Each structure stands twice: as C-alpha cells, then as structure tokens.
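Appendix B. One record, verbatim.
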Amino acid sequence: MNTVKTPCIGICSTTSLGDKICRGCKRFGFEVINWNRYSEDEKRAVLSRIDQLTSQIMAERFRIFSVTRLQQALEDYRFFYDPEMSPYCWLHNLLQKRLYRIDSLRDIGAELTPAYAGVDLRDLILEINQELFTLSQAHFDRYFETHRMA
C-alpha cells in the first residue's frame, strides 16, 4: 500500500495566517501541524473527509467529461494530484492554484453545469471555497470542538 502524501498545494493559511482551516488543502490547523505523526489510516480519514466535501460541492458546479484530459493538464502544469482522490478534488486544486493559466475549462476536460454557465470562474472558486469552509467548520464543531455541560 502506498504512503499517504500530504494534500498541501502550497497555499497554507494555517501556519502563515493562523486560520483554523487551511484555505489551500482544507485540513484543520491541528491536522497540518500533526500530519507527519498521523498513521496512514488517520491520514486517509482526513483525505476522505476533504474528498467527500469537495466532490459534493464541485460536482454540482462542474462536469468532468475527460479524466484523461484533466490528468494531462495536471501533468502539463506540473501539479501534484493524488490518484486516490476524486477528479473533482484534482480539478478544485488545479483551479485554486493555476486558474490564471487556464484558458478554457474544455481544454482540461471540464465544463460548468448548466446552472453555473456564464458564472465568472474566479467568483465561483471563491464561492466554492466559502462553502467548503462552512462545511468544514460544521464538521469541526460537531466532531472536534469540546462541548461543556452547563
């Protein structure tokens, strides 16, 4: 079995800005800090949560019609992607980091769903990241925040 790699995409806001949830990889700050101490199963659990939340949000807004074309674009941009994760996560990370270099979604094997046709991609990525932050915050509050009994 392969070693689980960090999902970091080089936009870390937990260590640089003190955010509770990283704006880049969507891990919680304590997950970023403790990543190298986690077991492979713990790392997979973190990646599974990120994958599920991201895929859910991205699939509503994008359709990937060519995974092969998306993989080729990732390689052309020399952009790391985890083949264990959903192509929607790959797409999200690529758009977050390299949107300024992408001329057309079709060139990378994707398109907007009809409900989002014509929406500015920069605005859409901001909206997606806000929704991911909101869902991640809800997950954090439910599973990690200590609740004191009155």
